[in-house]
Amino acid sequence: MAQSSSSKGNERRRVWQQLQLSVVVILVLIQSSFALDDIYNPGPHDADVFEVEQDNTVQSPKCRKVAGTPKPAGVSPPNRLFVGVPKQSGTYPVIHLQHAFTMKIDFYTQLLYHVATYGYIVVAPQMPQISLPDATMEIADGADTLDWYPNNLEALLAEMFPNLKVKPDLKKVILAGHSRGGKVAFGLATGVCKTVLAPNFVGVIGLDPVDGTGPGKQTTPKILPLSPYGLKLPFPTLIVGAGLGDDKAGINPPCAPLGVSHDAFFSNSAPIAYHFVASEYGHMDYLDDDLDGVEGVIANTLCRNGPKRAPMRKFTGGIITAFLNATLYGNSKALDQAILNIPGAAPVKLDTPQITRTITESVYASS
Ligand SMILES: *[C@@H]1O[C@H](CO)[C@@H](O)[C@H](O)[C@H]1NC(C)=O
């Protein structure tokens, strides 16, 4: 009798323990599935964004038709930089981000931070702010900064974080650019000006990239061949468009006119290429919330913008990390989920995402 009641008690305890265990397992599962999906908030790494002063003695670079040599060790970068970096020892791929027309790299800290928390080193060089219609000098300038990385980026990170071993993996360089900076990134990708790192390019990202002032009005150097798949890049492409980029802001012409912006960059990209468009957001919604100075006024007024920037910035940071995971590590789970475009899953409303998987398969919408 006593024994049976105690064994009943044991049984109950066992069931109870199993129940508790299952609850714990379920909670862990839920949490880990959230962690996988939630690319739109900062990732697993602690991260930092810091500024690096430029070498003021540097002359305007030449647009090299043949790659030169890396810059020597121990020199300052040819351009002022903002660097986003994970604060944890490790070796991380490098993303080289070119900013938008007349903008400051100071305006990209939130995006830099977001991507760095996923285990990437993001470097944004400041371009000359008064730029001519011809973007060749900016492409040369971008190449000049890339030439600085091999002998200096690792040392810079060692100096910034003496207690950590944070290293750049310069075998994996991803080019990225916003607006005119998108044109510059594709100019680097297509070799308009050469850099020693060109053989290590493994992907290119355009954030509302712009190649001119209107359909048929490309600025020099023309980057878009204006033919399907004509860019013929040997690595994957991600295009993130802003649906309002083609709208006027008051009397100002559109900042990203269709025909020379995200639509054309996508249709001109060879497989594999991805195209996401946030229909209700504008050309400058990739930037930080608080923008100072004249450049801030320009960013806030020159282009048609969305209701607020945070959702677009979070979407962009998230989709970049999803693209990088697919491109660099073959893990396309997050990207596949984004392509499904489940309502409410992303922080912005999206047009139907597009992918070009193969040329024969042609461009198709996935859902
Ligand atoms: C990237 O892939 C790794 C493993 O391959 C995974 O643990 C991580 O959650 C993925 N991150 C994103 C943002 O998809």
From TrEMBL:
SUPFAM superfamilies membership: alpha/beta-Hydrolases
Tell me where the signal peptide lies: none
The name on file for this protein is Chlorophyllase
Q: Which organism is it from?
A: Riccia sorocarpa
Q: What is the lineage of its organism?
A: Eukaryota, Viridiplantae, Streptophyta, Embryophyta, Marchantiophyta
